[in-house]
């Protein structure tokens, strides 16, 4: 960003959560106005504004305006001769279709003028419609009960007219039709009696409202419900270097009791048929048998059996002839009846046998200093590689230069020191287990090399990129609902003058700024000022299923820095519903009562289904995850 000319110079920074208007006008004055790039029609929208480096002898007026062909609306007008940070809330215009309008920021002083305009999208409210059948699979002759419900963007029941609801058989023939139904904020429920000679296959329900049509399918087939289920527990990925893998199989009745019987396991590594071309004649394909491990055990008192399988079984023939997966098939045969239930799982084979990484290594170095750091070597199972020779390189991978030989200690750690007197820019370091830095070959066992870029501490100028930075620390796991979490922000300010610096942060969820804050730090002169701070955040439905944290600041040298990170949450809902059976466990024929607890005047739809049906057709029912995912897709 250069200095302004006679009037002004402005620039724009786009960040992940929307747009941020940033302007500079004359000397030091600069302003930030983050605002969501997409608004929901009629919803509350929050934006924040910062005016920095204000001349105390000159009052400056900031005006934020929403421009449209029909009407210009002033959203914020603030006059000050001091720095300020403020946030404001307003209602987005009501629109019947997606509309683009202009968001304008204008700053006026005695000796300066700046104006910045950016487009924003106002999205029309689009309700989401769900179709639910009482179960995912039916026998010929049974009655299919289904319901249709439409919800607005806040997941509240919405009024909607359904022009036509159709039911089609597996051949696409229309066998049922309902016309001009109105939800009136409630659930539409209908049924259809299947013929005893109904064709087996996939049936499709469709609901059309205006230009929108949604679909839902269910099966019709002659089936026998399973009495029990089988669960396979193993790692989703294994290393080719492992000596053995462990797989646990457990069988449980629908009433949660263990199943006695024999557990049979069949683990195979499939043949890679593509290696032998696409001949239609099987005689042209070489006779290669997929390597397999088969074993049987009697289930223990918990209905489980644990199998330890040697990995060498799957490496006896050329790796190129095999796929990089293991197909696990478990058969559970119930004692006394001979009834069998089969479960499947696929396990991926990785050719990574270990990992190398840098740690306790600075991200910034100063001229003529000694750069000290550490590297760690671990195997696929996170066990340290002891007394292992490692090689340190510098430069880009294709033109790297060998620096040092290292050897790990009993913790798999090695230290290094590097004289930086010969460097005047970024140092790109690599750590490898081979004497030459190479790319791993396809489908060969290898260690993942580590790398780090160490920036040169220098002052920010027009000709150099600032090495000062902000970082929002990400979380690897989704945050649980209704919990308070700490969000951490790291900062590194390099070679700046002594000054106070404000670090602003915003939390952006579901097209609006949920919360915001500011942290003031003291920058030390002409050195590296590093640190971190955190703020607490309540995880609510307004943040689900994903939200962003954005942080930005203005360096004392007037260069802006910013960073953002995306976080996931569990599928949270504002409206809490609780179900209780009394008694919680019963016997066939016993009466039970169901208690539903929800907010007053709630619209409730209850569906009771045999657990055996869900074993027969898993994941084919309406779940909180499904509702949240589909709602997020449309909004």
TrEMBL record:
UniProt source species? Knipowitschia caucasica (Caucasian dwarf goby)
Q: Which InterPro entries match?
A: A2M/Complement_sys, A2M_N_BRD, MG2, MG3, MG4
Any signal peptide, and if so, which residues?
1-27
Q: What is this protein called?
A: Alpha-2-macroglobulin bait region domain-containing protein
> What PANTHER family has UniProt attached to this entry?
ALPHA-2-MACROGLOBULIN-RELATED (PTHR11412:SF150), MACROGLOBULIN / COMPLEMENT (PTHR11412)
Instruction: Work out whether the entry's keyword set contains Signal.
Output: yes
The alphabetical list of record keywords is:
Glycoprotein, Protease inhibitor, Serine protease inhibitor, Signal
Which Gene3D superfamilies does its entry note?
Answer: 2.60.40.1930, 2.60.40.1940
Write down the SMART domains for this protein, in alphabetical order.
A2M_N_2
Cite the GO molecular-function annotations of the record: serine-type endopeptidase inhibitor activity
Alpha-2-macroglobulin bait region domain sequence ranges = 470-616
Q: Which family does it belong to?
A: Belongs to the protease inhibitor I39 (alpha-2-macroglobulin) family.
């Amino acid at each position: 960003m250069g200095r302004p000319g006679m009037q002004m110079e402005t620039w724009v920074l786009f960040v992940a959560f929307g747009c941020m208007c940033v302007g500079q006008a004359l000397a030091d004055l600069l302003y930030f106005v983050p605002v969501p790039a997409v608004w929901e029609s009629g919803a509350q929208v929050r934006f924040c504004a910062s005016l920095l480096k204000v001349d105390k002898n000159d009052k400056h007026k900031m005006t934020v305006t929403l421009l449209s062909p029909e009407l210009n609306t002033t959203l914020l007008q603030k006059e000050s001769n001091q720095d300020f940070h403020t946030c404001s809330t307003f209602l987005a215009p009501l629109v019947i279709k997606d509309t683009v309008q202009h968001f304008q920021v204008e700053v006026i002083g005695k000796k300066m003028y700046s104006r910045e305009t950016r487009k924003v999208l106002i999205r029309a409210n689009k309700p989401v419609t769900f179709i639910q059948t009482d179960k995912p699979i039916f026998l010929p002759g049974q009655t299919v009960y289904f319901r249709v419900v439409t919800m607005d963007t806040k997941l509240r029941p919405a009024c909607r007219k359904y022009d036509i609801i159709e039911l089609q058989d597996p051949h696409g023939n229309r066998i049922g039709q309902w016309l001009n139904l109105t939800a009136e904020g409630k659930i539409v429920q209908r049924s259809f009696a299947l013929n005893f000679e109904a064709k087996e296959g996939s049936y499709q329900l469709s609901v059309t409202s205006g230009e929108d049509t949604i679909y839902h399918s269910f099966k019709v087939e002659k089936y026998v419900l399973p009495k029990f289920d089988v669960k396979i527990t193993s790692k989703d990925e294994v290393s080719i270097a492992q000596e053995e893998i462990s797989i646990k199989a457990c069988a449980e009745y629908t009433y949660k009791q263990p199943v006695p019987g024999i557990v049979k396991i069949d683990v195979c590594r499939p043949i890679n048929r593509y290696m032998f071309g696409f001949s239609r004649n099987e005689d042209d394909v070489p006779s290669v048998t997929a390597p397999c491990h088969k074993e049987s055990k009697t289930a223990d008192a918990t209905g489980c059996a644990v199998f330890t399988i040697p990995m060498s079984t799957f490496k006896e023939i050329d790796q190129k002839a095999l796929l990089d997966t293991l197909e696990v098939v478990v058969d559970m045969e119930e004692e006394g009846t001979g009834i069998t239930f089969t479960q499947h799982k696929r396990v991926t084979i990785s050719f990574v046998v270990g990992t190398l990484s840098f740690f306790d290594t600075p991200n910034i170095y100063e001229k003529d200093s000694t750069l000290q750091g550490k590297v760690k070597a671990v195997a696929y199972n996170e066990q340290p590689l002891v007394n292992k020779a490692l090689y340190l390189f510098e430069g880009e991978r294709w033109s790297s230069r060998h620096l040092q030989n290292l050897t790990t200690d009993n913790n798999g750690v090695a230290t290094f020191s590097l004289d930086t007197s010969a460097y005047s820019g970024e140092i790109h370091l690599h750590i490898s287990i081979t004497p030459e830095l190479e790319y791993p070959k396809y489908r060969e066992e290898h260690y993942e090399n580590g790398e780090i870029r160490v920036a040169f501490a220098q002052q920010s100028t027009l000709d150099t990129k600032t090495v000062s930075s902000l970082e929002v620390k990400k979380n690897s796991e989704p945050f649980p609902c209704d919990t308070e979490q700490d969000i951490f922000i790291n900062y590194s300010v390099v070679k700046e003058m002594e000054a106070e610096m404000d670090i602003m942060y915003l939390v952006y969820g579901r097209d609006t700024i949920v919360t915001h804050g500011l942290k003031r730090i003291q920058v030390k002169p002409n050195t590296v000022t590093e640190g971190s701070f955190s703020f607490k955040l309540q995880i609510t439905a307004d943040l689900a299923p994903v939200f962003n944290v954005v942080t930005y600041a203005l360096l004392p040298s007037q260069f802006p820095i910013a960073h953002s990170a995306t976080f996931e949450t569990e599928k949270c809902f504002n409206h809490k519903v609780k179900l209780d059976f009394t008694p919680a466990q019963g016997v066939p024929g016993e009466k039970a009562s169901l208690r539903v607890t929800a907010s007053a005047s709630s619209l409730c739809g209850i569906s009771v289904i045999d657990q055996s049906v869900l074993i027969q057709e898993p994941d084919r029912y309406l779940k909180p995850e499904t509702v949240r995912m589909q709602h997020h897709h449309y909004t």
